[in-house]
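FAQ
Q: What does a multi-component entry look like?
A: The components come first, one per line:
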Amino acid sequence: MTSELGHLALIVALLMAILQGTFPLAGAALGVPVWMSVGRAAGRAQFFFLAVAFACLIDSFIVNDFSVRYVAEHSNSDLPLYYRIAATWGAHEGSMLLWAVILGLWTFAVTVFSNSLSEEFLARVLGVMGLISVGILLFILLTSNPFERLVPMPSDGGDLNPLLQDFGMTIHPPMLYMGYVGLSVAFSFAIAALLGGSLDSAWARWSRPWTLVAWIFLTFGIVLGSWWAYYELGWGGWWFWDPVENASFMPWLVATALLHSLAVTEKRGAFKAWTVLLAIFAFSLSLLGTFLVRSGVLTSVHAFASDPARGLFILVFLALVVGSSLLIYALKAPAIRDTARYTLISRENLLLLNNVLLVTAAASILLGTLYPLILDAMKLGKISVGPPYFSSVFAPLMAPIVLLAGIAPLFAWREASMPKLIRQLRWLAPLSLGLGIASTALFWSLSDIKTLAGLSMAFWLVGSAGISLWNRIRLRETALDGLRSQSPSFYGMTLAHIGIAVFLVGVVLSSSYSEEKIVRLAPGDTVQLGSYTFTFKGVTDVVGPNFKAQEGSFVVETDGKAVAHLNPQKRIYKVQRNTMTEAAIEPGLTRDLYVALGEPMDGAAWSVRVYYKPFIRWIWLGGLLMMAGGLCSVADRRYRLASLKTVEPHTSAAMRKA
Amino acid sequence: MKSWLLGWLLLLGTGSSPAVEVRQFDDPDKQTRYERLIEELRCLVCQNQSLADSDADLARDLRDEVYGIIQSGQSEEEAIRFLTDRYGDFVLYRPPVKPITILLWLGPILALLGGGLFLWLQARRRATETDLELSSSERERLEHLRQRLEDKDNA
Amino acid sequence: MRFLIPLAVFAVMVIFLAIGLKLDPREVPSPLIGKPAPTFNLPQVADAGQFLSPDSFKGQVALVNVWASWCVSCRQEHPVLVQLARQNVVPIYGLNYKDQREAANGWLAQFGNPYTASAFDADGRVGINWGVYGVPETFVIDKAGLIRHKHTGPVTPEVLEREILPLVRQLQGEP
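Then the predicted structure of the entire assembly, as tokens:
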């Protein structure tokens, strides 16, 4: 019964979405207020019914209702309750429903936090979101229905993929989807602005907090995925340039560009057309990612069971949404007039350069991801494009961004004074280089240019952020006064930029100075890694809720003192019968110690992988700092005050007069 | 087509275990070359993993081949040629530079140059406003006011 | 005009993605097509005293089928091969890949033996030389000993009809 109820709720949600997608847009175009107001009501109703549908599916998992095909395929009665709930979004149909629910959630949020938007603008925003919902819900109902029954009902289920039976894995998809789907809000705002012919700074101010929140979630989702891969996949990697990883990174890069561009449009009235285009790109890349994961077009560790029919549906949906939005852009953008003037050396231009770099990076990743497909489609053979390509392309593009991120706040708007800048920065370059050399030489080896460059850039970034802060503080009476008078969004920016520096330190040091050994160890044997001694104590058998495992015991010592007891496991899951290696990690701020069991060898000996990974946590720490920066910015009073008054968007006629 | 591959995969066990053969090298340089090579070669069975990370039987065999070639003193190019002769360019994670991959390797640079051009043209178009003539004291005052305005502007 | 560029680029991308839906990203094409079949000299599965090499089938068009008793999909295609062997259209030689001799012979006894002879590739090195990555695989060898076609995956009647038999007939017509 629950399953049928869920199915029904889904259908009703689709009907609500159809109402939400048609009346408001028509109402805005024809000027019918009643139709425009349908948007809010339909949007809220849609979310309500989606929540009901989702609750029904979760319930089927909780009670082990194996008569529902999706539950039978992806759950098991031995699966702990927590994972049974998470299994709801563990495969294609359920995760698609999660996507729809989250879109409903964002829609609901827009209906709530939109007091400062004009009726016409809100109607268009909700209308566009409604149309997207219609596409997604049709897709689910027609090709990917999670509520299908399975007759005859099996006695037990196929179990959740053991790779997903992990805390990090359960929250990674929801966080990512909050980000992906959240970008649809910025997208809808952009389309609404284009349709209404009003692209003033008010639009940018409205869009910014929504884009920020989506960006924060997307950052969190990517950080989680990377951290999970590190501790779960057994070989210490944290980024593989896998097609689906790329599919999440590209929207992130473009969303970052969008955030910066929105700042300029809001403050200076520049880049209007460009910002709109970025908003369209960001969400388009989200949709493209959805297509790549579920169509079977690319080989990926993330790919759900692919089905060309589903792939075709998503492709048509993608073509319609993105194609029509780019068409609207092509028709309406030429009429947009920027009100700003700026010169070659100015903060505007620097931010535009930042955008160009970020978009080029995203485009390069897209090129590399799709290139094998393109060659194959043209019958030119099959190649692979993997980490060696992506890292050699990405790093050179990121270096200028890191260098610019710290100093951009020091550039004046419109026309910056080069002499003044040089005066402020002239000792920073040698200082950063000096600190870079010093730290590299002190702790590691000076012969590594990559480390030297990376560390110097990190010092540069932090140093220039410091100068920026100092410039502002020193205009006040006291330092405390100065600190207190800066806005949250200034601190947000500074934190996020420092996050980049922290991330860079983590990447450079862990990639240059990681040590790894694969050795044969019998009980009692030791292996030395740097200053750490790993002693193998032996392997015992253990039993888990739905698996059996062989557990190794290791003691790690340095300077004669025991530092860690590590227990890596080799698990065999009862139902799917795969072997999973659970590495044991001793985490630390300045280093991780990592042990993974290999294969049993002769006697009681095992082959074992041990790792020493310096500063690897800084990678995710950097990501978290970026998130914290974003949160600071969202907290800025500007956005909350704005909700107190309604601002009429200027029509294009009014703009032309100005 | 897909079901048979699935059968093959299931047989091998889609687990996540790292490759853990203990290798002996008579030369640390050879070890570095071997390790770097197997990271840059793609497993043909578990196609989302490098030869280094894959647990598949074929990956083990191919690692053995690469080990044999490097240990016998031959170069990385020879190991790569051994594999591409049998499996084609698909096995390389670093795409070779050939006529058909020129666009791939040059693409980012071209995009960057295009972006730079776009920037320059935009700035040229934007700076069309003529500045009024200001006296030096007026300029100073303007600078000061601008700085104050910027602090209010904040981030 | 320049505002249409994003749309144009997007349209091109969609076309490629649409074509991509029909392609199989997992399939690895063989670089050995048109090249001489890699040589080997392996003991036979049935009788370790007898040997098999590509010279055995030089001068005629032949199929080389890579199989193993542990391979689930080989079970799937086997009846098709047995049926084909009965028709005496083209000789089928087997390359038994990474198997146990006893298991291999038992499997053939149970499910039928379409092979004129099967080579026993215990450690799989010959398989690697032939670019084998996904058993079962089937190669079409021409009279001069060149590989002319490779099919990865089970051979179905459709595959025979569309891909293999027309080529075999064409090659047999050649001197």
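Q: Is there any commentary attached?
A: Sometimes. For this entry: The first helix of chain A runs from residue 2 to 30.
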